[in-house]
Each structure stands twice: as structure tokens, then as C-alpha cells.
From TrEMBL:
Belongs to the Orn/Lys/Arg decarboxylase class-II family. This is ornithine decarboxylase. Pathway: Amine and polyamine biosynthesis; putrescine biosynthesis via L-ornithine pathway; putrescine from L-ornithine: step 1/1. Residues 533-560 are annotated as: Disordered. The active site is at C480. Residues 538-550 have a biased composition (Acidic residues).
Amino acid sequence: MTPMEVVLPTTSLMEEVPSVVEDGPESTVEGGDFPALAMQASVASRSCRSDVGRTSLGHHANGTPTDLKLEAEAKTALAAAAVQPVDRGPALATAGSGAAPDASMALLSSWQYRVTGNGAVAQVLTDFHCEHIKSGGPRGVQEVAIRHILRNDIDSDSIYCVDLAAPFRLFKAWRAAMPRVLPYYAVKCYPEPGILKLLIALGAGFDCASKGELDMMLKMGVSPSRIIFAHPCKRTCDFRYARENGIQYTTFDTVSELHKVAEMDPEFKLVLRIRADDPGARVPLGLKYGAEVSEAPALLRTARELGLECCGVSFHVGSAAKNLATFTNAIENARKVFDEAASLGYRMELLDIGGGFTGHFDELGNVMFGEIANTINAALAKYFPPGCPELGDVRVIAEPGRYFAETSSTLFTPVIGTRDRVVKDGSIHKDYWLTDGLYGSFNCIVYDGQNPEYRVIRSPVQPEPTDTRTYLSTLWGPTCDSADVVYKDVALPALRNGDWLLWPNAGAYTVAGACDFNGIEFTHPCKVYVWSDSSVDPPEEQEQAAEQEGQEATGAAGQE
Ligand SMILES: Cc1ncc(COP(=O)(O)O)c(C=O)c1O
């Protein structure tokens, strides 16, 4: 099988930020003795949608030596994994229970304990049947996806590989870098159950935008006190639901919303959202939401007249922000609003610095946080100094979405149709049809300004391609809409039905914005959950050297 062949430039922003925050020892993943394949046998069918169309992909009549070898290796590894000795020490210490019901589960618990040092997180990994893998980079998840494809005979479904270790590391890094700022995950960005449960276990709060999101989080057992209903213009039905379910905090930015609150429930704790645009943000939000700072006094006075309780200020600098100074200015403006509110007799207690963060890893797998944390910490120290008598204790929260979601997931889309056309200059233009498109995960191109990168993965059941040339190609989505085109005129090697494209960093604003147009279930992709030792692949040379060392050791052992 040929590994990735085409890599488009990465679209990640803030990459210039140096990586100063390293994964602390707590989040360092151990568990080298965890048999990576132990859970796969029991997991594969459960983690895949039950209605997946089956073909004989994994049992290709003309199975090549490569695919036969792959299957044989997987079977041997599975058999070996099932009889691995169980190291139950740390697991028993956490769980405080007797022997685990079966060997593989006991081993998993043991490994999870060492991975996380956190019983609730370990439970999430168990519940989502996470497979332990070495790397969550494209090479690492590609291996998982291929095993999954073979085991489940998948040939016409997109697959999401969700690495729960990525948001885990990002959460740890966030808490270390900005200890004053508690993240309230923006559910809208990626309401992925594994990620939501993990963040609950880690102690995050949640930013919900609707009755649906509130309901989802409350049903997962989140206390209403850990939720902010961060929508400045709420539907009354959503409002009613929030009130009936004990949600206390909500945002506003207009007089009209204040009247709505007064009518619905004057007990709500109101957070005034102010405008704070980063002109460099990929998705600016200020045109739609956020009161101008100059409008704040009038809004606060109206709230006072209506007998409402204003308790804080929020802002959002725009999604995928770039300019650090925007945060400083916004925090300074928030302080002005706090002071204004104080002059009207309000004692505000909440500062919500919104979203806009990107979460990426450097080549060593460290979270790249860098200057943004220093900038925010410095601005908080200046404008909201702890213990300041005029302010009292101000709680600081943020609403990151993309930060936790983006790197967590890798999307795999098979090629399900091809066409060659001779164009004017006599060259061949290739068309490929994929299982995902603009109505599915790639709505991110339209709504989120993304320019997703991709790599080619060759079919695990077909021989190596003989055509090694590159062609100008178009990648079509699967619906009947001719506007459903993912990329036009990109250079690609010749693809066949059954080859795949791998799309890294596919967690944020992708499947969350999909619909099921044409009756295609874009909103419920097939999923595989993993937990990686590192969020990036090791350098290729390092991996090859380790592989060679392993082969030499096996050879030497065989000769003895
Ligand atoms: C109110 C609010 N909070 C938080 C977010 C999450 O933003 P991001 O994903 O940039 O962190 C959004 C995104 O649109 C938002 O509208």
C-alpha cells in the first residue's frame, strides 16, 4: 500500500506562535504494554454505523499478497492480544474493585489509569471503546482506518477517526497556560459525544446556543451551573426550556432581548456581549452580534429600569483569530463596562472572553499556545487584577470550540466514481466522486472559510496503481447538486474507485453543520474512537529506524 502522496499546504493559523506549553507529566501517555489491538475486535462493529452497506471489499476475490498479509497480520495480532497477561495494579488502585470481568477490559482499565490518572476520563475511554494507538497523526490514524475498513467491509461510507487524546492534551495545556480561565466548550462547533463526555470528565463548562444543545448537555448529566446559554438573540421556546431547566446565565446585546428576558424570566443572570472584532479572524462575528462599547451604558440603564440582573460581560473576537491585541483591547473594554455597571449599582462577577482560539501541536506533539495565553494573562492581570477591591472576585471563562475540536478528528472519504475527459489542450482531466461534500462535512468550505488539506490513501485491497502520473482533477460531492464540488482543478495522482482521501483536522464546523440532503446520512458518519500516545506522527526516518530495529531483534530471537 502506498502511503500519502499529496499534501496540500496546511491551513492552520497562529502557527507562527512558539510552543511554550508542554504536555505536563500528568497527561503524558504511558501504557506501552497495552496491546493496541486488544480492543479492536470487540470495537469495530460497534463503532461503525449499523446500516453500513456491505460489499466484499475485505474479501476481494483477487486478494493481492499485500492485503492477504495485512489480514493475516491483524488476525495474529488479535489472537496474541487476547492472551496478553493482565497488569491490574494501577487499575485496581483506582477502581478499588475486584477482578475485572474479562482480561481485555482489565488491561484497558489498567492502561487508562496510567494514561489519565483520572477515573472519570478512563470511564469515557472505556465507554467509547477507544483503541490505543501510537500516533494520532495522519500515518497513525490511517492504519486504524484501514483496519476498520477491512474488518467492516466499508467501501462507500465516510469514516471519522476521533482521537480523544487530542482534546485531553489541549484541555491540560489550556489549564496550565491560563489557570484563571475556565473553558466552556462551544457545543455548536462539534457536538461529538466522546469529546463532550471527555470534557465533562475533565471539568469543563459548556456554551450552548439552543434548546437542543442545552438538552443534550443536561441529559449527559451536566449541571445547569456549568452551562452558559450564550446566544444573544434567543427563540422564546429555547428561553422557556432554559428557564424550566435551571439555566442561569445568558447573553444579550440589544434592548429587544432585555424586554424578552423581562417577560420570560427576570431572574436570568445577564451577560452583556460587546463587540470585539479581530479584523484578521477567519470568521468575523461582530457584524451580527455584540453591542458597541458606546451602547453599553444605555443597555445597562434599560436593564436597571426593567429590574434585571446584569452580572457580566462577554465578547467573541471572531473564529480562528490572529491578532493578539484584539484580546487585550476587548478585555480593557470589558473593564470599562464593568465600571459603568458599577456606577449603576451592579456588582458584576463574570468575564467571558469567548472563542477564537486554534489548538495545534508542534512537531514534538506539544500544544502550541504561546503568546495568546501570555497576552490574555497579562490583560487579565492589568484590567481584572485578583483581589481588586472595586471588582471583587471576577470569574473568568471562555467559549472555545475550534480549539478542542479541530485536531481531534480525521475524515476518510472513499472514491466512489471516476471519469476521464480530454480537455482542449489534449490533456486528460479527471473527475472523482466522494462520499462527502458541501452538504456534509465540507460545508466548512462555504460557512467556515476552510481550505481543507488532504492526502491520498491507496485502496487496501487493490494492487499498487501502475499509472504514476499527476492529473488536474475535480473532487465532487455525492449529491445530485452540481454545485456540490469540494475542489476544482487540483493536481492529484490517478485515483480508482476504492482509493481514499484522508482529511486531517476535520473536527471543527464540519459534520456539525451538515444536513442529510438527498437522503444521504452526512450527519451520522461512521466513527472510530482512538487514544493516541502522541498527537503527531514521529518523523518518518525515526519510524523506519524503529521498525528496522524491531525486525532485527525478531530475527536475532528467531536464530537463538
Ligand atoms: C457565542 C459563541 N461562542 C463561542 C463560539 C466558538 O468559537 P470558536 O470555535 O472560534 O472558538 C462561537 C462560534 O461561532 C460563538 O458564536
